[in-house]
Amino acid sequence: MSTPTQPNPTHVGDFSAFPDALTGDHWIEKLRDGTTVLIRPLREEDREREIAFVSRLSHQARRLRFLGDFRQLSAAQVQQLMDIDYDKRMAFVALVHDQGELREIGVSRYGATTDERTCECAVTVADDWQNRGLGVLLMRHLIDFARRNGFKRMISIDAASNEGMRDLASYLGFHREMDLADSSQVIHTLAL
After folding, report:
1. Residue 89: CB partners within 8 Å, gap ≥ 6?
2. Phi, psi of 75, deg, nearest 5
3. Do residues 72 and 56 lie in contact, with contact meaning Cβ atoms separated by under 8 Å?
4. CA 169 from chain center: how many Å?
5. Buried-exposed string 110-137: b where 16+ CB fall within 10 A, e elsewhere
6. CATH code for the domain in which residue 177 is found
7. Could you give the 3-state DSSP secondary structure of residue 162?
8. How many structural domains does the chain have?
9. Distance of CA 135 to the CA centre of its chain
10. Of 37, 38, 69, 117, whose CB neighbour count within 10 A is largest?
11. Using one digit for the tens of pLDDT, what is the confidence trace for 75-105?
12. Which residues pair with residue 122 across a beta bridge?
């Protein structure tokens, strides 16, 4: 399903700054409908793409992803989304060519919790790219990377009404339970 490829600086940038722990600098993946996408770690040069990606999400998608809605990301939110260290905080983006530009169409990410063996994850797919298998691909890369970094458990806190995440989590083997602190939320848990 996944084909690791070697860096191609003329196409997607210089990968020399990536840690050796990455098994591939980027992956060319085919979605269920045959569309090809590029998946790679989030980089600083993606800052404007990340802002544009979140701003293009529908109100419903933003509410489900961030458990709230807003008009635009604050500087602090952008910094938090871009803050990855390839260990305790990681993110993978899915990109396609759109009228000569790379456009972000999905992202998966994790961050270590206070229990250093557990990470909290999130995945977001652009409204017009949903139901093609992109969320599964993004999460598989994230899960594999979390395992290699020594995490033993991955969790996701989601709105109980988020049917897409419920289906994705179930497909990937996550266990679902109600959040005892907030009945409008559920916690999905995956043993790594």
Report:
1. 83, 109, 110, 111, 112
2. -60, -40
3. no
4. 13
5. bbbeeeeebbebbbbbbeebeebbbbbb
6. 3.40.630.30
7. coil
8. 1
9. 8
10. 37
11. 888 899 999 999 999 999 999 998 888 999 9
12. 109
β-bridge partners, 89: 111
Pairing verdict, β 3-5 and 175-178: unpaired
Is the pTM higher than 0.85?
Answer: no
Q: Hey, how many other C-beta atoms are within 10 angstroms of the C-beta on 26?
A: 24
How does pLDDT run across 111-157, given as a tens digit for each residue? 999 998 999 999 999 999 999 999 999 999 999 999 999 999 999 99
The full 3-state SS of 67-127, as one line of letters, equals CCCCCCCCHHHHHHHHCCCCCCEEEEEEEEEECCEEEEEEEEEEEECCCCCEEEEEEEECH
